[in-house]
User: What shape does this take?
Amino acid sequence: MDTQITNAQRAEVLTQALPYIKRYTGKVVVIKYGGNAMVNETLKKQVMEDIVLLRLIGVDVVLVHGGGPEINDMMKRLGKAPEFVDGLRVTDAETVEIVEMVLAGKVNKSLVTMLGMHGGSAVGISGADGMLIEASVKDPRLGFVGRIERVNIKPVTDLLDGGYIPVISTVGCDRQGNVYNINGDTAAAHIAGALGAERLIMMTDIEGVLRDKNDPSTLMSEITVDEARELYREGVISGGMIPKIECCVDAIERGVKNVVIMDGRVSHSILMELLTDEGAGTMVKA
Assistant: This one.
């Protein structure tokens, strides 16, 4: 099959994207890049290309990232078995050091470097920098897993004003100097809300919300907050999708215009979502 496109087709693609470019230029888009969506290097490269392109057309992009698989890998290499309660990582004093080292160090700086390789100007920070994410103990059983108490957004807006792409790792801190492991989706919702973002994109390893979880053709392209609550009551939204939808609703209640859950395993899914009629994944809106 010939996949080459003509110059006329390229021009047509750009023309169709123009209304969307106008819509998002000068607006803030927060992208939550999930650990399980980051494991393929080819797809990771395409995500970085999408982010740099958006920045070049004037979109203020903020990248919030997790890194669960990398944390698990490092813990195993150090002879420590990962442990979870209700889907949250049990984080003792030793584990929180590993989390900070992997997220704020290895993963964060690799994403910053990749953005730079594709022509972007990115700066990596953690939620502990500038007290960006102030946190407290969420549940004593979980150790240093944090509940977000406050977001001090100025470090992020300063970077955006300087023309940079902020790349944020999801660790937080308290006034006593304790560091906390923060759920990435929750952190992205709070940060997007504090920025009054036009859109929060949550990249994961699922297509979106399915009416029938075993049938990809039942993907729901758009749901309201009220519909999301009804789908939860019906049991359509269950398991790992529950906390994601809760974060979507939280973000909207904090002032984000709409939130999209989409499959980070699809090539250039960010551009498909923002710059085409087709879109990608499931949009949750007020």
